[in-house]
Design goal:
Length: about 190
């Protein structure tokens, strides 16, 4: 059984669309950035912490999938905006520029002897934004779509009109690099049967 350690409806939808069966058990971990931690270290650490937290109460033989996504510009992580003003500021920073979306992914399991295995990887996608006017930003923020998204936008939603191109995995920008996840799950399954 696969357990998704996330309450993200987008991650759940991506897994369902890929034909993967799973249960949802959101992890409750502190998502604060640590001193000196770069964005890639940050998403990998959080993905692992989420997976291991849920693994503690998971049934024997379960695989737990943890993930965390951040938007990075000028070396700084942009998480989910706290309010409309922060969403507006984030979108102004992204306007007319290239940025990166980073997702850390962890697949964790525990064998019959209680030994825990956790494989952690990350995916990075470059995303190009066209210039967005202040009026467009204001209207987008009013739609409330940005409010629960890292970087204050959804590539699969209204913000798609400002994204002429990406380099890398599209699904990573939505919130879960599916091809990478499937490879990791396959390895974990093979490890269990070995």
């Amino acid at each position: 059984m696969l357990i998704l350690a996330s309450q993200s409806p987008r991650r759940a939808e991506l897994l369902r669309n890929a034909g993967i069966s799973f249960e949802v058990s959101p992890a409750d971990v502190d998502e604060s950035l640590r001193d000196g931690e770069d964005p890639l270290q940050y998403v990998k650490r959080l993905a692992k912490e989420k997976a291991l937290e849920v693994l503690k109460t998971a049934a024997q033989g379960s695989l737990v999938l943890g993930a965390d996504t951040t938007v990075v510009i000028d070396g700084e992580s942009l998480g989910k905006p706290a309010d409309a003003d922060e969403a507006r500021c984030m979108l102004q920073r992204l306007s007319g520029r290239m940025h990166q979306v980073m997702t850390g992914v962890c697949v964790a399991s525990r064998d019959s002897d209680g030994k825990v295995t956790a494989e952690v990887e990350a995916e990075v996608t470059d995303v190009e934004f066209t210039a967005i006017t202040a009026e467009e930003i204001a209207a987008y923020v009013r739609s409330e779509e940005p409010m629960d998204k890292a970087g204050a936008y959804a590539i699969q939603g209204r913000a798609s009109r400002w994204i002429p191109g990406i380099r890398g995995c599209y699904f990573n920008v939505v919130g879960l690099p599916l091809a990478r996840v499937c490879t990791m799950l396959s390895r974990a399954e093979q490890g269990k049967s070995a």
